[in-house]
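Need residues for this backbone.
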């Protein structure tokens, strides 16, 4: 999310806890002393050919913003754009995939809106809840925190290879399974442990979202290249130059914000900028709470990898 305008002053909306100040994953509005609403939305064109899988991935991606704030999803509305010459049965499969994923989250789809468009798109407007004192934001990282990632990287490379008909079915199906996986368990874990900083890894790639944490928290994030979890096939498709268009925009934006302290193989270099769809959570947790977080994640069958730490300074350091 980006600031809307200088004319919107956060002091004029004291119940809006997150939204008009530093950009974050979702807006948060305090209802009372124990409940705040989380509001977000996301939608995009198909990233895979299978309609049901696209619906499930898109729903998981949209709900991820609520989970990144440490929240619980309670309600969603469909957002769809559809061409007149495409079968409605395909749209029904997309909506079915989204509905099944929202049901898995323990929430309800309560309606939605559809328009006619030349490029099909699907997404959700999502409402969640969180305790006002237990919100995870991008600005909550502190020096000495450990960085934990909950999904492997490389979905942009693999889906691009899929669109170009060069991805193996095994690689593509594995990526689809990861993208459709909810970040719900990770959200429950960070609530249990009291984590104050998290974000989800999506279109800006690992480096882009890590930089948002660094900027909001006024710290530097040091990432270990050899510690990154990678989806099967990601490096192979990077070597084949199956690079998503968004990766180039990420590189342009981050070129003066990231310090690479050693040379990386070209394929690993691409992983850092790869735009993800429905990626995992990047969590900053105090070292004294790391073991407790890992236990809480494992209890909920959430994978985790330690990928770096928070240090004094600004920007991103890759070593």
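Answer:
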């Amino acid at each position: 999310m980006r600031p809307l305008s200088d004319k919107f002053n956060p002091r004029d909306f004291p119940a809006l806890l997150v939204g008009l100040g530093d950009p974050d994953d979702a807006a948060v509005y305090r209802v009372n002393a124990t409940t705040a609403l989380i509001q977000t939305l996301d939608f995009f064109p198909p990233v895979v050919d299978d309609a049901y899988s696209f619906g499930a991935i898109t729903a998981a991606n949209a709900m991820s913003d609520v989970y990144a704030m440490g929240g619980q999803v309670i309600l969603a509305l469909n957002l769809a754009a559809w061409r007149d010459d495409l079968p409605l049965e395909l749209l029904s499969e997309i909506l079915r995939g989204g509905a099944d994923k929202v049901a898995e989250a323990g929430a309800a789809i309560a309606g939605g809106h559809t328009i006619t468009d030349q490029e099909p798109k699907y997404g959700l407007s999502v409402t969640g809840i969180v305790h006002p004192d237990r919100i995870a934001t991008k600005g909550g990282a502190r020096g000495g925190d450990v960085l934990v990632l909950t999904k492997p990287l490389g979905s942009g490379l693999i889906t691009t290879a899929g669109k170009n008909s060069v991805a193996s079915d095994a690689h593509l199906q594995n990526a689809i399974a990861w993208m459709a996986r909810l970040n719900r368990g990770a959200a429950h874990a960070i609530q249990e442990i009291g984590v104050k900083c998290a974000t989800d890894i999506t279109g800006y790639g690992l480096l882009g979202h890590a930089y948002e944490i660094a900027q909001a928290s006024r710290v530097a994030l040091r990432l270990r290249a050899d510690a990154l979890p990678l989806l099967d096939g990601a490096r192979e498709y990077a070597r084949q130059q199956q690079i998503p268009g968004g990766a180039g925009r990420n590189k342009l934006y981050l070129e003066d914000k990231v310090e690479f302290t050693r040379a990386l193989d070209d394929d690993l270099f691409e992983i850092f900028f790869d735009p993800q769809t429905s990626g995992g959570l990047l969590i900053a947790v105090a070292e004294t709470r790391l073991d407790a977080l890992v236990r809480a994640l494992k209890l909920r069958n959430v994978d985790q990898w330690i990928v770096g730490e928070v240090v004094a300074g600004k920007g991103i350091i890759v070593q």
